[in-house]
Hints:
Layout: H1 2-25, H2 35-44, H3 48-51, H4 56-78, H5 84-106, H6 110-134
Amino acid sequence: MRKFLIIFTLFIAIGALCGAVMMWVDPSGNGWGGAALLDMLRAKMPWPEIFFKDFVPSGFVLLAVNGITQFLAALMLVKKLPQAFGVTLACGVILMLWIVLEWWIFGFNPVSNVYFFFGLVEAVAAFRGIQKSRN
Length: 135
């Protein structure tokens, strides 16, 4: 279970890092088809004139919420820290909440649906890890 979660958390973290870099390299979203998404963010999120002029702030939030947390969970799993499964469970729940927010803003789409499933798998696997470590 631990090895699976290490690979899984690193996969999610690297995906978040790549998404953040993509937003920083092309903050307008024109090169990767995100310009329409920026308009949707502006329509549904607070303070659009401050936070949604471009995707730079969104990249930092993505990295902080789903990148760094997943990297930390992976590191804790590698070091076999007692809190590792609990932190990984929290990361799975955070990812699912992130996707619920995406669904509210953008509607359902295949990528978000897959990442919600990833969050669910991560949370369930971490919960199983917690159960096994208590026995």
